[in-house]
Amino acid sequence: MIGQLRARVRRDMGRAPGAVATVIDSQSVKAAETVGRDSRGYDAAKKINGRKRHLVVDTKGLPLFVMVTPADMTDRDAAKEVLFRLRLMHSEITIVWAASAYAGQLVGWAKKYLNLTVKTVSRPKDAKGFVVLPRRWVVERSHA
Hints:
The protein is an alpha/beta fold.
C-alpha cells in the first residue's frame, strides 16, 4: 500500500515510479528510562542514551526504509543490514548517497555483494556551523 502511494506521488511529480537513487542517514534520539536497556545504547558522539533511526529516502525525500537500533550501533554496521534489506525490497536502486560516516569498507562491500554504489558527501573542510550538503539535505529534511 505505501509503495503504491509512493509510486503515485513520484509519477505526479513527473518521476519514474521506482527510485533509482537514494539517500541514507541516521539520527540518535533519547529514550526514556522505561525503555529496556537491551533496546537502547549510548551514542558517545552525540552524548545520547537511546535509539538510532536509520532512514533511507528517495531523492524527493519519500521514505523507502526505516530501521531502529540501539544508539551505540555505528552507522557503517547498521548500514550493512539496512542496505541488504533495501536491496531485497527495491532491486531498481543503483546509487546511495551517504554521510562520510558511511565511508570505508562499506563502499566496497555494497558494490561487491549488493551491486550498489555508495557515494559519500563530506562537509567542506573550512565550513563552520550548519551547511546544506548536496544530496544529503533531502534525508535531513525527512528526519525533521
